[in-house]
Amino acid sequence: MKNRNALVRLVAISGLGLGLLAFSGCQSARYIDSEGTETIVTLDQINIQDWNNAANELVTSLLESGVLERAPEQPVILGISRITNNTMQQVDTDSLVKKIRVDLNKTGKVVTTTTVGLGGRVEDPLAKETAEYQAFMNDQPNPAGAMPQYTLSGKLLEDRSSTGRTRQVTYTFQMTLTEVATGLAVWEDEKQITKQGKRSSVGW
Question: pTM score > 0.90 for this model?
Fold first, then answer.
């Protein structure tokens, strides 16, 4: 009987040890560079490196175009317009827009308004309410604050193709800078990212 109880305890302890080992194995993780080559690449969604690459190249294109240097006032006041998603997936376009905004603001040539937004949707409602209150108290004609001189709009496109077991998807990031005073598109560019992989046993 004692041998049987000892065997039961041994099996229980062994099972607990294996469970802890499996649990610790599942929790293994490490930090990597968000813009490095070790990030996970998937065909069926836009990954963080796609946003980073697109934003970096579009910002570089805009800066090299010379449009901002030709603006009558510095820094340029920029408003964010509509970013249309024409892909097959739900994506947070703020990931692209915010990266572009951050990079542009760092140049010192651009500032972004957070109190003027498309359809009344603003990024910082408290700042807008404060500006409106101050304008009311001071009897100012412009309660919204500084108006943007330029607006940034864009579109996300997706093209899929396959041959045999090989699948390919191309994501196109299009951006346009419009001068508010004239309504002219003073800069436009697009960045394409193509990814390829083998067809899985389930799905597209």
Answer: no
